[in-house]
Every structure is written in C-alpha cells, then in structure tokens.
Specification:
heterodimer, A: 407 residues, Aspartate Aminotransferase, domain 1, four-stranded antiparallel β-sheet, 17% strand, globular, B: 139 residues, alpha+beta, Sufe protein. Chain: A, 3 strands
C-alpha cells in the first residue's frame, strides 16, 4: 500500500487549490460535507457522457451498462462495510432519508403504545424529529440518554433506561457537534440483551473509518456518501436481511413492485422493495468510485495524521484567551467545537471566511445539545485527511485577527 | 431626506473603504454602539429567529412615520441592522412599502442578506415591510 502523503493526496482534490476571497482556501468544514477527488467528479461526468440510461428495466445496451455500474456501487459498499449480503445495502437520498425510512417503515409496524425509543442528548435533529413523529403517532415514549460535561454518554444512565419496554436505541456513531466517538459496539450489545434493535447514524464516522457491520452486529446503520468523498444526493441504509424483509415498503412506485393490478400489488424482493422510483444513478455509480478511492488509501497512517491534526489544533486553540472547547471526550474524532467568551460564533465565522478559512458556526442542528451546554452555538472546525498542520496555523492566525476585531 | 437619498449616502460612505477589513471594522463599530432597542422591547414576540443569530425588531408609529428599533446578539448582524434602520426609520408606511433596498448590494454586503445565511436579516426586512403595511391603514 502506498505511503500516505498529505501533499500528494491534496493533488487528488482540485478544489483544494482554489482561492476564496483572494486567499488560499482552508477548508475546515468537512463535518458538513467533504470535498471530492477528481476520479469521483469524472465518474459523474462519465456516466452522463457515455452511459446515461435508466437502470433495472431496460433491455438495451446502455441501460445494462448503467445498471451494472450502479449495482457495482452496492457491491463495493457491501464489501467496505462488511455486510453479509448485497441486498442488505439499500440506496437512499442520504442519512436523514435512511433514518426516516426506518422510523416510518420499521417504526409503524413494530412500535406500539407504551413502547420506548432511546436516543441520546447529542443527536442531530435528523435523529430526533423522525422518532418524535413516530412516537407521537404510536403513543410510544421517547427517552434521552444524558451526557457528561466532556460530551460522553453516561453509560450507567443508559443501562438504567434499558428495559423490556425498549424497542429501539437510535444513536450517533460520531457526534457532528462534539466529535465524541460513542462506544456503539457495547451499546448495541446491551440493547440486544433486552431485545431492542439499534439504529446507528454513521454520517460522521464514514469520513474517518469504515464501519464494520458484522463486527458491530448492528441492526440498522445509515450514512451519506457526500461526507466520505463521494457525491451528494445518495446515501446508504444497511439493515440486517431478516429485519428488512419483515418491514413493509416505505414508498410505493416503480421498481419496488413485482405485479400490479388495481386490486392488489405484490412487492419486489430486497433491495428493490425499498427503492421506489428512479434513483440518483450518477451518484450511485460514483459511489463505487468513491469506495475504490478511499480503499486505496493507507488508513493506518491516516488515523495517525488525523489524530496529530486534532491534538495540534486542540493545543493551539487552547492558547487563545477566552476560548473554550465544547466536547472533550477521551475518544474523539478530528472535530473541534469551541466558543469564545463575549464573541458570537457568527461574527467569527464571517471574519475568518474573509481570510479564506471555511468553518461552520451555529447550533449544528443539535439544539438540545447546545441547550445542555447553555450556549446558542459554537464555531466548529472539522478536519479531513487532506488537511494540514499549516492549515491549523492559518486557522489560528485568522481566529486571532477576528477576535482582535470583534473584542 | 428620502429613503433613497439615505441609501446613496451610505453607498458613498462605503466607497471610502479600501478593503474588507476597513468595511467590517466600520460595521463592528456600528454594532458596538449602544443597544438600538429598548430593553423592554427585547421580548420573545419581537424576536426573529435565524439559525445563526437572533434579531429583535420593534416598530412604533409617531406622527405618521414609523420609528424602528432593533438589536441582535451578533455584532456584524447588528452593524448591518443599524444601517437598515438609518435608511428606513422615520419614514411613512407608504415610503417603506414602495422602497427597494438596493444599498446592501451596492456596498458589498449582499451575502448577509442571502436566505441561506439564516441570520435573521432577511426576515427582518420582511418584517419591516409588514409593519409598514399594517401601519398604512392607520395613517
């Protein structure tokens, strides 16, 4: 395997050499979306240039070419996440779509009055609201696993909340706002002990390591491709085969049926049963390319590099007077949220952007979490493997300048 | 002075700035000035919630003219608010309803009024026009 070199890797991503506001782009908003390597961009254009046709139903050559390329994406994901069967890999629009599919299709047929769904205090709104909606409808109860001041789940509290009433535990693998890596394997095992199912939101995880379905023994796992150097508009729902077979279709339409008469419709097999309508074909095809690309990288060295970025940035940020890091879990991904005393996150975001530094500001779609810390929002710098220590330095320079102007 | 004369005045002021630093330092200094709204008016019903920052807006009719006061928790937002108030306040409802706010674009602050920013400013402009419509029946 090729040795990891951040200088070489950066050349794969054309956008990283552009300028913003007259300054070299320092892209530290990878938690929102990652940049795309040239091969992924080429795969999308290649499909529209040479293979554009609708998939699954055509007998003509182009349709077969497109179908093969699209289904290749599914197989690559299957291998990458170590799923047992390719039909356990369902294409969705993204993470949110995957959660809604499960909360609706699984929730409607499995939850009943008095059942309990557990989520955590650090969930993204997309893993809160769909569960609130289905719990309201089924008169089930939504309960929240609390966290400590470092942003780690209180495992004892979790164990106390678990009971025979618990039917679903839905939680985030890596917190988008705090960077906390949750002990999902242990959480899944504990949930299974009381007969509950587990859905893991892997949106942030997939940028940092491949999640292993069979090792985790997870029931449902959702993520989007755009945060793992792939295209937007496509995501993956992994589900154990027997669970997906048992749930009713979520949306009706083409592709998901076997026979239709006005009296009765019989449904298609997995995975197509859960994939109604023409999907995002170009994105599905580019999924295969994205998985190939990340699989070609040396991830042992990438983990070292990302940890170095996290440690270095954390140490440098802490030197800034009045700056407080929100989320200091022992087990943490390269995501740093912080607040600066007396200065609004929005103001910081506006000023550092003028210096070419892209960070995210606000509540990061985690308002209950912000309330937990008694803040309106944070500034968040999130790093990918193509970021450098020099970029951390540029962030610090921009921040110091912003604070000087705003204080 | 008409609303458009005031817009021209702001545009002229901004022409003096050589770079973004000067411009934002000016906005920040406007933002740092005393709260533009009475503490009593900083209520939940006067709040315009954006994803990024919050804006409070109050309006009163005084001798057929609308007086606006506003505030924000973010200082750059507050600086822009102060410009908008300077341009629109003390005008008749009819003037406000008929005005097109073009100065924001001309002084290079258009990005702050983009709906995707969700800093409360777009909703604030809408709310100012709504006040004008509401008060137009009273004058």
């Amino acid at each position: 395997m090729k040795k990891f070199s951040v200088e070489d890797i950066r050349k794969d991503f054309p956008i990283l050499s552009r300028e913003v506001n007259g300054k070299s782009l320092v892209y530290l908003d990878n938690g929102a979306t990652s940049q795309k390597p040239q091969v992924v961009i080429d795969a999308i254009t290649g499909y529209y240039t040479n293979e554009n046709a609708n998939i699954h139903r055509g007998v003509h050559t182009l349709s077969q070419l497109a179908t093969t390329a699209y289904e290749e994406g599914r197989k690559k994901i299957q291998t990458w996440i170590n799923a047992e069967h390719s039909e356990e890999v369902i294409f969705t629009k993204g993470t949110t779509d995957g959660i809604n599919l499960i909360s609706n299709a699984w929730g409607r047929s499995n939850l009943k009055k008095g059942d309990e769904v557990l989520i955590t205090e650090m969930e993204h709104h997309s893993n809160i609201v769909p569960w609130q909606m289905i719990c309201d409808e089924k008169e089930a109860i939504l309960k929240v696993i609390p966290i400590n001041d470092s942003g780690e789940l209180l495992m004892d509290e979790y164990k106390k909340l678990l009971s025979s009433k618990t039917k679903m535990v839905a939680l985030v693998h890596i917190s988008n706002a705090l960077g906390t890596i949750n002990p999902v394997k242990e959480i899944i095992e504990l949930a299974h002990n009381v007969g509950a199912k587990v859905l893991v939101d892997g949106a942030q995880q997939v940028a940092h390591a491949a999640p292993n379905m069979r090792d985790l023994d997870v029931d449902f796992y959702v993520f989007g491709l755009h945060k793992m150097f792939g295209p937007t508009g496509v995501g993956i729902l992994y589900g154990k085969k027997k669970l997906l077979e048992a749930i009713p279709p979520y949306q009706g339409g083409g592709d998901m049926i076997k026979t239709v008469t006005f009296e009765k419709t019989t449904y298609n097999e997995l995975p197509h049963k859960l994939e109604a309508g023409t999907p995002n074909i170009s994105a599905g095809i580019a999924t295969a390319t994205a998985v190939d690309y990340i699989s070609s990288l040396n991830w042992d060295e990438i983990h070292v590099h990302e940890q170095e970025l996290l440690d270095y940035a954390t140490a440098e940020l802490k030197k800034i007077e009045g700056l407080k890091i929100i989320g200091e879990a022992t087990n943490k991904a390269s995501v740093i949220s912080f607040v600066v005393e007396g200065i609004h996150a929005y103001d910081i975001g506006v000023i550092v952007d003028k210096m070419g530094v892209a960070v995210r500001t606000g509540h990061h779609c985690t308002q209950p979490l912000m309330n937990r810390f008694g803040i309106q929002g944070t500034v968040r710098a999130s790093f990918a493997f193509y970021n450098t220590k020099e970029e951390v330095d540029l962030l610090i320079v921009a921040l110091n300048r912003a604070i000087k102007m705003l204080a | 002075m008409t609303i458009n004369e005031r817009q021209e005045e702001v545009i002229e002021e901004f022409e003096m700035f050589e770079d973004w630093m000067d411009k934002y330092e000016y906005l920040i200094s406007l933002g740092k000035e005393l709260p533009l709204i009475k503490e009593a008016n900083k209520t939940e019903s006067n709040i315009i919630k954006g994803c990024q920052s919050r804006v409070w807006l109050a309006a009163e009719l005084d001798h057929s003219k609308i007086q606006f006061t506003a505030d924000s928790d973010a200082i750059i937002t507050k600086g822009i608010i102060s410009l908008m108030i300077r341009v629109l306040t003390d005008s008749t409802p009819k003037e406000i309803m008929e005005t097109e706010l073009y100065f924001i674009d001309k002084v290079g602050l258009k990005e702050h009024l983009s709906p995707t920013r969700s800093n409360g400013l777009v909703s604030m402009v809408k709310q100012m026009k709504m006040y004008a419509i509401a008060y137009s029946s009273k004058v």
